[in-house]
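Notes for week 9. Today we move from apo structures to complexes. The key idea is that a small molecule is not decoration. When we ask for a structure prediction with flavin-adenine dinucleotide present, the ligand SMILES becomes part of the input, just like the chain. The input block below holds both the sequence and the ligand string. Read it once before you look at the output, and try to guess where the molecule might sit.
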Amino acid sequence: MKPDLFEAPDYYNLDDLLTDEHKLVRDAAREWVKRDVSPIIEDYAQKAEFPTQIINGLANIGAFGPYIPEEYGGAGLDQISYGLIMQEIERGDSGVRSTASVQSSLVMYPIWKYGNEDQRKKYLPKLASGEWMGCFGLTEPDHGSNPGGMVTNFKDMGDHYLLNGAKMWISNAPFAQVAVVWAKNEEGRIHGLIVERGMEGFSTPETHNKWSLRASSTGELIFDNVKVPKENLLPNKSGLGAPLGCLDSARFGIAWGAIGAAMDCYDTALRYSKERIQFGKPIGQFQLQQKKLAEMITEITKAQLLTWRLGVLRNEDRATSAQISMAKRNNVDMAINIAREARQMLGGMGITGEYSIMRHSMNLESVITYEGTHDIHLLITGMDVTGLNAFK
Ligand SMILES: Cc1cc2nc3c(=O)[nH]c(=O)nc-3n(C[C@H](O)[C@H](O)[C@H](O)COP(=O)(O)OP(=O)(O)OC[C@H]3O[C@@H](n4cnc5c(N)ncnc54)[C@H](O)[C@@H]3O)c2cc1C
């Protein structure tokens, strides 16, 4: 793969809106991605393997629980810092960002928000340091966009719960020590349970043959009469709103992350357009290529403004789920379109692993699907503005 010469576009001087702490956190993540992710990621994507050696580095840049309080091992940062870290990681690879998002927003967040003090103290510091990795089990083979229909269930057996069912498409599942699993009790109410690797009847077979997020490990979670200790139930929130609250946090991170992927594609195409000579001139001198670049930087700039504002609203605890849906949908769509255009600008070279664009393009096919598909987020916006529910 080519050396990582990335220079971040900032067309509207958005750095002026960031604090010194934001820039410090962002720049540390950017440097780490250049040094430890870019040189190896293409190989791992080709091998369809998650590079476990970067787990320490992810922990060191604060990617595991950026906004979790320091007393639990988190970095105690604000939401914009969290977003910037996700942006920089996804600039390297969406699969690596997925691992960090799951750990922070889908495992640490529910333990912090819905768990008790014992659970926080037991799990959060180990998850923040990367000593333990986690996964989040919501999707099932027959329930994806409609997780409320889930059939995974648990029964109260007096001194423990008995968990049965299966989850599918679970990021980090094959190597995670801890799974936050959403299941229905005997009354049909959804609760979160912490399931640990090694519990009898719990297995995590890996999902193979993915053309997307190849450097992220995906698997199933199978529960065959798993005895879960009663103290592993998350006591402070139940119902579908509990997993959806985690998804708000993760989707916010994805909205920032997608900008990272788009910036990398744009920056690569811009550099290539000045170096590649056809018909005696750099291809960047042709109007058609300039149109592509001009539209890319316009869309990136709009997305940067959207997420920065959303970050301010999140910091003030005022962002709605629908606002987060809009940003996730817009930014991932923006990134996937930029990846497609940028790939074309590189001609044949665009399809090789010499450049990151094709990998980003394929990765974004997962990102536009998980955490609520493109169409589902549109329906959420539609419901928000009309007050009419298209899901029923
Ligand atoms: C690589 C990868 C990693 C993932 N990681 C995780 C994870 O860690 N944890 C987890 O729980 N899940 C995870 N997922 C699952 C992901 O969230 C689901 O794939 C996603 O929610 C869509 O569900 P589905 O695949 O079952 O598609 P379906 O729900 O079957 O949707 C199929 C199509 O129908 C459309 N559709 C569905 N309902 C409607 C409707 N009411 N109106 C209009 N159109 C509709 C959808 O938009 C989509 O286009 C992951 C998925 C992938 C691909």
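The CA atoms of residues 303 and 382 lie 20 Å apart.
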